[in-house]
């Protein structure tokens, strides 16, 4: 049984999209909810139907749901088959009596209007009496050994003999789609490739000059 929140006149909605920044937004919203001692909800919106989500999207949703359970979030909401993200957010906010909205500012996600300011302006027009918190997202990735990486870019993993090569163009030979983080200060494609396996498991591979140099945690299934 969930603990009854102290302030029911306030409620927070965190909007996340696919990518490594979703977890950070959820944790930010959770900290805000703890300070205000109020209900917390997490929402993700997609134009596709849920059963059409690929392995990467399904993996992110699974991880976010686990995190929401871990942080005792009141509800994790998936709105699929939506033509308008603003309309979906507005409906959820209205139904849950939301007073605080948390969104991320990053050019890598589908909330791309945020970077131009138009998305926020639409939200402000559509949802009065709601405070909107725009969280700036770091464009670099830092590893445990303090190695710094550039902003992640979309990449693909392709089988090449006994190993696997990093590619930046989709083809029928690509096994996985993910995000490549290039090491800062190198002229070659050295860095880290992150993707979600067909079993929904998040995997991380080290790349040296376009080639995977670490053993894959799960053998690719190309059937």
From TrEMBL:
GO molecular function: phosphorelay sensor kinase activity
Keywords: Kinase, Transferase
Cellular component aspect of the GO annotation: plasma membrane
Protein name, UniProt field: Histidine kinase
Source organism per UniProt: Oceanobacillus bengalensis
